[in-house]
Amino acid sequence: MLAVARPADGTPHGARTAPTLPEGPPGDRARDPPGRGTGPPRAPAQGSPPEPRSGRPARGRPSNQGAPGRRAVRVYRVTAKRIFTPTRIPGARFVVNQYVGCEHACSYCYARFTCRWRRDRGPWGTWVEAKVNAPDLVRGRPVRGRVVMSSVSDAYQPVERELELTRRVLEAMDRAVELSILTKSDLVLRDVDLLSEFPRLEVGLTVNGLEGRAARLLEPLAPGHGRRVEALEGLRAAGLRTFAFVSPVIPGLVDPAAVMEEVAPLVDFFYVEFINARAAGSGFRRILTREFPESAEVVYDGFRFREYVRRTAAEVRGTGLMVREVVTHLRGRRGGGRQTSLPLG
Ligand code: SF4
Fold first, then answer.
1. Contact in structure between 22 and 64 (CB atoms under 8 Å)
2. Residue 135, domain CATH
3. Which of ligand 1's atoms lies nearest the C-alpha of 150?
4. What residue numbers bound the domain in which 313 lies?
5. Whose CA is nearest to atom 2 of ligand 1?
6. Less packed terminus of the chain by CB within 10 Å, N or C?
7. Residues 190-214: tens digit of each pLDDT
8. Residue 159 in contact with residue 73, Cβ under 8 Å?
9. Burial of 78 (C-beta count, 10 Å sphere; 0-12/13-18/19+)
């Protein structure tokens, strides 16, 4: 049986009773509060050329996980014809993607393949499309059915700090909408005042306990685990309905039951998703095989992975916590779970 890596203190994934600020140099974003942007959003310009920007605000790095130096991110300002897109995500009717592309650049991200027709933009994580007219498309549009934000990006990726596009979409949105937001970023706390105006809202953080080398390799520019837990704490303190999306579950690297126990006091329910090796692609396979060979041996061996999923899903159920869905991505009736991808973030 493959053991899940645990830190030296013996606690799973650095589980702790009190949140700690991640380490970083003075002024690092890891220490900055997720406040509003420093300036007004720039004027929308249809068809404007890509605008190179640093993935790092002047005052710090975009990640608390030792992300390598500055990273140029090209922002394409585009206009869209519609913003509520019908979806096959279970339980949802529409997705809202005010951004396409994501600076968090997770190596396993499934969204890169849904955006493959944008290959001319460059490698995943180096470009973002901002639908600058998204607030106008939302305004005055009552929507029936659950709306998910977002499916091909993270609504609170770093560029949002400057553009405030997600915030303006929320400002324009009908407050009666049944809205589900999923993110990896504590920037969501900036909008707590606005989120509190939606009575049918739920906000989720993707949590998986990845830290150190695994986090740097798999989620190089996303906020670290500690900041995500702090985001859940802040949302909870504001009285919002919250959930944790425990994903991706990777053998030897992620212990979903331990993560669930850690954040259980902060959420109303969970989703759990096992890694979708096929959708994660060859880049992820290379990283996993090179850096975590024991994990790769299980993930890419159909029989062993199926056994791992069966055993781990039983552990998840054994927590007794409220799990809305376990997504295994296994094919066939004995897979025991949905194959449909859930929203990203
Ligand atoms: S945060 Fe979500 S959308 Fe962004 S790169 Fe990571 S998995 Fe993809």
1. yes
2. 3.80.30.30
3. 3
4. 44-335
5. 345
6. N
7. 999 999 999 999 999 999 999 999 9
8. yes
9. middle
* 62 within domain boundaries: yes
Q: What is the pLDDT of residues 147-156, one digit of tens each?
A: 999 999 999 9
Residue 223 lies in a domain: yes
- Of ligand 1's listed atoms, the one at least distance from the Cα of 124 is 5
Cis peptide bond N-terminal to 150, omega within 30: yes
In total, how many domains does the chain have? 1
- Kindly report the protein residue whose alpha carbon is nearest to atom 7 of ligand 1: 109
Spell out which residues line ligand 1, taking CB within 6 angstroms. 102, 104-106, 109, 111, 153-154, 184, 222, 344-345
Angle between helices 256-263 and 225-237 (to 10 degrees): 40
- Go through 89-103 and write b for each residue having 16 or more CB atoms within 10 A of its CB, e for each that does not: beebbbbbbbbbbbb
User: Hey, whose CA ends up nearest to atom 3 of ligand 1?
Assistant: 153
How far is C-alpha 297 from the geometric centre of its chain's CA atoms? 26
